[in-house]
């Protein structure tokens, strides 16, 4: 029987350590945990970073699992995602008074997979299957948690876009202050799966004045409702620490 490939074994060991750390380890800690020289661990981490299997926090240098792993191994399909999110999305619409959308990435596209109408008598169109612009709140959340070098046909992100997406990752929510649709905006938060990776974005949409104050700051009650609902769906999906 052929022997194992050492570099693959080492990369697998690193991924296991990173997965178990919850994004709290730097290269020195990882090298010590897997029993490798720091230079060897760093070389392997650079390769894993390039292909999107790990991500590195630019501020702290610590590593976490990358979203490319989700595309390889996730067994979560759209129907299951919708089923587990449905009750929380309905409750969010009822409490906030706004339309609620759940979206995922399909290649480069931000696609609505579940839509709850705002609870009033106005005419509304079902948006399931609609592709949203990346400047939407849902789009910002999903792109913030996708790897910038894999699965994209649009090339490297401009520095300003990369900086904004970094802020979205750090604070845990995104806002669209009428950037995608004049007069209307959105607030969204990430939904995580059982492995801790972001699998979807959940958010509300409505008029800019209803979601933000005059300075463009999200209204605290609406923001907290969105974050709480996204955490609740994450718990339904078995996300650690959600």
UniProtKB/TrEMBL annotation:
InterPro entries noted in UniProt: GAF-like_dom_sf, HTH_MetabolicPath_Reg, Tscrpt_reg_IclR_C, Tscrpt_reg_IclR_N, WH-like_DNA-bd_sf, WH_DNA-bd_sf
State the name under which the record lists this protein: Glycerol operon regulatory protein
Q: Which UniProt keywords apply?
A: DNA-binding, Glycerol metabolism, Transcription, Transcription regulation
Q: What is the lineage of its organism?
A: Bacteria, Bacillati, Actinomycetota, Actinomycetes, Geodermatophilales
Its BP terms in the Gene Ontology are: glycerol metabolic process; negative regulation of DNA-templated transcription
The source's domain of life comes to Bacteria
IclR-ED domain: from which residue to which, for each copy? 68-239
The record's Pfam families line, in alphabetical order, gives:
HTH_IclR (PF09339), IclR_C (PF01614)
What role is this protein assigned?
A: May be an activator protein for the gylABX operon.
Q: What molecular function does GO assign, one term?
A: DNA binding
Keyword Transcription regulation assigned to the entry: answer is: yes
Q: Where is the HTH iclR-type domain?
A: 5-67
